[in-house]
Design a protein that fits this description.
This protein has 125 residues and is an alpha/beta fold. Helices cover 23% and strands 29% of the residues. It has two helices and eight strands. A six-stranded mixed beta sheet has the order 2-1-3-5-4-8, covered by helices on one side. Strands 6-7 form a two-stranded antiparallel ribbon. Helix 1 packs parallel to helix 2. The protein is globular and about 60 Å long. The mean pLDDT is 89.
Length: 125
């Protein structure tokens, strides 16, 4: 049996850690354990100095030994978890994540849905 993936982070990130555990277990059948403020395979870190003007921003670093996700707010950690989820690929039954660093944040401070009425499809009778 494979060893579980160790997720570590600040105790303020218990919801985000739980969400990551659910994703890894549900989508990939990866067993995890949680430890707080210790070494681990996946580190979730709150850092007030990282992207201070971007509360939804994050930095995700993947190396051969560790995945580190840093943000200045839990919202950034949540967005980084979704990016990590998209990076996981499977090759012959083995899950892989390409090494690299991503720094990301929304381009605009608001989110909106644009809806336009299609008036051309309704011909006048």
């Amino acid at each position: 049996m494979d060893k579980p993936v160790i997720i570590t982070g600040d105790e303020a990130l218990t919801d985000e850690i739980s969400k990551l555990q659910q994703i890894l277990a549900g989508d990939y059948s990866i067993m995890t354990e949680t430890v707080y403020n210790q070494a681990g395979n996946i580190r979730l870190v709150l850092d007030a100095t990282l992207l201070p003007d971007q509360p939804e921003g994050y930095q995700l670093e993947v190396t051969a030994r560790q995945i580190t996700l840093c943000a200045n707010q839990p919202a950034g950690i949540s967005h980084g978890i979704q990016s990590l989820r998209q990076m996981i690929t499977e090759n012959k039954g083995i899950y892989q994540i390409q090494s690299g660093t991503i720094t990301d944040y929304p381009a605009f401070p608001w989110r909106a849905l644009c809806w336009m009425k299609d008036v051309t499809s309704k011909a006048k009778r």
